Amino acid sequence: MKVTVIDYGLSNLLSVRHALEHFGAEVELTGDPAAVLAAKALVLPGVGAFRDGMQGLERLGLIEPIRQKAAAGTPLLGICLGMQMLFDQSEEFGAWRGLGLIPGRVVRIPSTAADGTHQKVPHIGWEGLLPAGGRADFAGTVLAGIRPGDECYFIHSYEAKPDADADRLADAMYGDRRVCAAVARGKVIGTQFHPEKSGPVGLSIVEGYLKLCQTAE
Amino acid sequence: MKRKIRLIARLDVKDENLVKGIQLEGLRKLGDPNAFARRYYEQGIDELLYIDIVASLYNRNNLSDIVRRTVDDVFIPVCVGGGLRSVEDVRHILSMGADKAAINTAAIKRPELITEVANAFGSQCMVLSIQAKRSRSWAGWEAYYDNGRAHSGYDVVEWAKRGVALGAGEILLTSVDCEGLQRGMDLDLIEAVTKAVDVPVICVGGVGCADDIVDAVDAGADAVACASILHYNKTTVPELKTELRDAGVEVRA
Question: Does B253 fall in a domain?
Fold first, then answer.
């Protein structure tokens, strides 16, 4: 199984690569639009600011290729900033357009919890994943290998707000509020947390994505 | 239940060896850092913190190879500090598999570096490392650098606030007074800094048992890093986590 990891200069790709290789995947790191268009399966990693991420993709001419591949049903996994960029737009540093693959927007995590107490931003920590979008569990999804409540590592100052509840795959609690933790719309998947940094739980999510890629082949 | 915290293993490295000192001095060699990292990962530690403790004296960070080997088979966040002086240094260590860069000396010498790193890689990558020592000149703590050898004249609480305003997404707060003694953390320091900033604070220095961590959480710590008690097998990660849970502190399963 070959997986193409999109390299636009913004992240620690080594851990994503090792996590995929852990399950025997052949990993291609590339910022070349032609290689993205030829990919069987895509991973869009990323840390940092939304604007920088979209500008990085734009500079390399990757926005249209990624959109085309997603429309054609090629599996795509966005991680952290990579998930946020799947949405229509973000309010980070003004308003920035995203890839528009999942309807919704990305907003700053409020610095006050619902009960009025102060909460820290960025949100950094391990939180349990709760089934969302009307699901009772994770059966039949990329999260099938984990149990509700299994914890993953989050580090983010912005959170995604999907328009459609059905696109929400998992939520996590930050303080007393639900935060969107994972999304799925067809074969476009996004995780706000870092599966490649979430220990054995995260690895089984990577494995779940590779299984999805295999069935798509 | 108290709020959830992260439990971090701190690995001080000199040359190729894991070392541990007391109040950042009198170092003892303990072995291969990768072996310790792997063990703590398997035991369920939440994060690793590597510090090249002599790097700032020689203007370089030697941890690249160690970090690269660690992330081969350790899938948790890795923060690296010691001798990082520029955006290029940070880019290099991130490309070796680090997730976050902890910067002390270079930020004191040139605070704009905090903003440059935050702009280049995001605030979540930019951890401001502060070595705090109780001041003899004023009622508070002074920020030290060059691994506790040189003093900056900066008040720790003011420096932490300024660092966050400049773009730091997290504070790594080490009590030089308590470090390595295993007699408890500087709770006044933890309370003063965590109240002053709205980003997470990793507290380091003085953990001798689970109760010390509970006290730090009560004082406001968002994460606690331990070294001696783990390195010297005084306890294990699962034992610590069980004790923390029993005391009402939430930790990752």
Answer: no
